[in-house]
Amino acid sequence: MIRVKSPQDLGAGILFFLLGLAGIYFGRELTYGSSMRMGPGYFPFWLSAIILFMGLVIGLRGLMFEGPAIEMPQVRPMAMVILSILSFGLFVIPLGTPLAIIVLVFIAAYARPDVNILETAILAVCSAVFAVLAFIYGLGQPLPLWGDF
Amino acid sequence: MDIIGNLTTGFVAALSWDNVLFCLIGCFLGTLIGVLPGIGPIPAIAMLLPITFGLDPLSSLIMLAGIYYGAAYGGSTTSILVNMPGEASAIVTCIDGHQMAKQGRAGPALAIAALGSFFAGTIATIFVAGFGPILSAFAQQFNSPDYFSLMVLGLVTAVILAHGSVLKAVTIILVGLLLGLVGTDVNSGTTRYTFGISDIWDGIDFLPVVIGMFGVTEIIKNLEAKQYLRDPIKAKLSTMWPTKKDFRDSAMPILRGTALGSILGILPGGGAVLSSFAAYTVEKKVAKDPSRFGKGAIEGVAGPESANNAASQTSFIPLLTLGLPSNAVMALMMGAMMIQGIQPGSAVMTSRPDLFWGMVASMWIGNAMLVVLNLPLLPMWVRLLSVPYRLLYPAILMFCVIGVYANNNNATQMVIVAVFTLFGYILMRVGAEPAPMILGFILGPLMEENLRRSLVLSRGDPMIFFNRPISATLLFLTFCVVLLIVLPSFRKTREVAFQEE
Description:
Chain A is built from five helices and no strands. Chain A is an all-alpha fold. The longest helix of chain A is centred in the middle third of the chain and has 23 residues, at 42-64. Chain B is built from 22 helices and two strands. In chain B, strands 1-2 form a two-stranded antiparallel ribbon. Chain B is globular, with a radius of gyration of 22 Å.
């Protein structure tokens, strides 16, 4: 059994290897052309090939040299923050900007434990009011004030 | 060459009431976002970019300059007060600046940082005005192979300044180049890597990429580190104004920092980070009593702060004359200009002199605003720091999503933000610094186009890159840089330099 000496390097190696592989695989139907007449697939192919190769090198180094471990990701902050962003995309048109921001702030608040609901509600409303005053009225950004309802 | 006449043109174009107002707003918002702990200039600028898009090109560039300098100064403020550098170039400011703050001398440190930056900015503006046209005239001789080699040089030099592994930095740049190619190929009209998603037919917008990778990922990192449990920062500002002795001690470091920064800023891949480290080292070397450094020596703030501001100014030179962004922030600026329909490069100066000189003038105006706005408002910025993180991060997220959404009113952009947040997070976990990716991302299509043209010129013979004198010189320089990276002694210095964090 090979011992992984630097999990971070091995991880980066695998990530880059897969990216390079994906670049070649999903670009396989692009015309390669020739050096004289580069097709749309020429530059992506070579980039992907080098990325793949670099991935191999970095990964192998991870087996050979000592390095730092990969910290375990925490699910909650990641999940809630990403969810809050997606929720804004989902709600901004049907509900309008201020309401979508209130939803965003509430979901984002739950990225950490011990949420104080009253405090979060005040923060959400203040953020929404700020967004409307600063971005919609102040800077004239084209954000929908009210939704489609 | 008529620098004064040109600058006058610029100031006349830039100094309308509207433009000054936009610059002021930009500066205010830039500082507001930049001062938030954990937000460096890159995400701060990215978040505020969209508000400039609706303006005409000159006004939007002027507002951008305000945002840029505001964000940079906001970053210095957090470095000094709470020891949290938002970006690599502020790391050295932390060393002595934060010590000064601990001794209750945050006010003088911040004031010297602002005044030093203003002085450096003024000199560097003149430098840009003098050097820009020369380099631009030189750039007229550049052909596709030369541009290609120039980009190679720029990207390779960017690697030196990335944290951590060189190999990972190289690869992440290549990944950036590849991502930059997503969308419709201009030559053949074929869509590449779009997976049938019509929103990315014109390429992936760089705003959601930057916001996701730098803004949102940072928030998740802070949440994982339980930042919200920490006590809010209470910084005291007892005395605002530096003493006579402070001024005397800082005068020379400011001059030296300005000179160093102005020169280093022009180098491709160079800029703020390199020059602030260099300035700190120089100050320590020339000081009568080097042991004071690290314990709150004002020279350790004055030198690097002047240097990084001078450098961030002169790093506009390669962007405006050659169309080559030398660091991630310049890549953002380039992206913003392209959205305004300006392709940065030597053509700007000849076809739109008002724009070029207006931009140069706006740099100075941006710097002046900084002194006018930030010094009196310092107590307010400081109070902002005492807002607990649990209230801060939802508000930062709001800025992120509104920035992206206002960019093109497309809700699916949020999915791109989410994807790149995840990607940035994974990169962080495997120890790869994401900043160089932005350079590749912006340069991808340009590099491909210049490679294509070069190879058409030479009928497919790659030797064209070595036969042309300009291109060959640039590749030789690239080779030297690679040697430098591989050389053990340099590697050690680089590791030490980044360890001070």
